[in-house]
Model the fold of this input.
Amino acid sequence: MTRRSCAIYATGIVCAHLLIVGIALLVAQVFQTMIHNRLKKELTLTEKSQVFESWKNPPPPVYMEYYFFNVTNPGEFVAGKRASVKQIGPYTYREYRPRENVTFLENGTKVYALNPKTFVFVPEKSAGDPKVDILTTVNIPYVAVMNELNSYSFFLRSFVSMYMNSLGVELFINRTVHEFLWGFKDPLLSKVKTMKPEVDEYFGLMWKKNGTHEGQFVFHTGEQNYMDYGKIDTWNGLRQMSWWSSNQSNMINGTDGAVFHPLINRNELLYIFAADLCRSIHLAFVEDVEVKGITAYRFAPPRDVLMSPSENPVNEGFCVPAGDCLGTGVLKVSVCRDGAPIVVSFPHFYQADPAYINAVEGMNPNKEEHETYLDLQPTTGVPIRACKRAQLNIILKRVQGFPKTRFINHTIFPIMFVNETATIDDDSAAQMRMLLLIVNIVSNFPLFIVGMGIILLMVLVVLFCRNRQKKPTKDDMAYTQVSDKPEQPTEASSNKPARNGSYIAMSPVET
Done:
């Protein structure tokens, strides 16, 4: 056997082994399973896991942008016309949110933590100075008092109304953005405090929220089941709320939005418990996106989250008292806001009933600026980019006994909205890209083996074809009989003696 033949046989054997092993690994998904098991083990909230430190001290900067609706025609609205507002802002604050008092419970399967938030003003990202800019908006303490007295007698409401008039309290107030956001001493609340000492005489949308937390959380670490990674076990000691009118609405579902389980697929719903909204919401897959070179899945709340119970009966449990429901796109949260008629929605009533949008001049909802979304890396479940947008509104309506409301139209009045954003930092993005590269290489290693087998198969075909077409050598010569007839004598060779026997010639033959 020649060396060429040996090479062909050896190539064929190696090729067959590569193809068999590669296809077997590919079908059995050995490497994919190995990677997935490794991710399930590493992506937990145990103290030794790689993600614990970033969960405890999130590296991406978080910015809170506040936009306010400045009322341009308060007198006309009180007289019965449609309100007109103009958006001002943003007033941007850097949000710091390290977790504190982190304590592991039940053999490391659960972890307790507080999540205080601190806000620092960022002038270069803001449209103005909140301590200088004046805002005209609804006097929320005035409306809260009216709402509280709505169930009392007409005589008492009239007496309180005259008393508030004597104090010079109006339905609309003029305050700086900083005061309205972080608090000011309200004259009406100061008088109420003399009768009810438990009432705080200061009012502000973010009053006492700088440096404080939203409650005591206990999370699942994912040690027992990776699908429970980051899910809330209890909030303020509760596994279920009591504000709403159905058990399903009172459920505390999902995570706090900071982490999610690995190996996310497009068909699942992701749940988040939002303490500021007093409820859990779900997010559905929207589209594939790319953030800093990292492929991610975008999830966003579908329209049915705030859909009217007439369209989505599941939401009937959010009507309090039972049967007292609003339309699509808004949620009344008075039950967890000390009784004030507060309503939450998406900015500019995005995804809401057109009646709410048209009731106030200046509403311009659009998906790009007003949608809440979350971009998640599906393999690790790590949020790459997040944008949480929510609008605060208040119900304004006529209340008998308060003459200043006798002409106003029933309106869900927009006050302000927030845009809370976070994007993965460059260092974390580089580490994520490297991790995903390693995962892809290891996961696709069977394909590499199959590819090498295919290449060797092509080499084998070429060698075989060339071997059939090669030129003969001396070793490949053989003798064959050509003719038994003697050569006819010519004139030149007539004098030579005749030869006996057969003539032979050399001709190439295939081995």
User: Anything to note?
Assistant: The mean pLDDT is 86. The two ends are 11 Å apart (CA to CA).
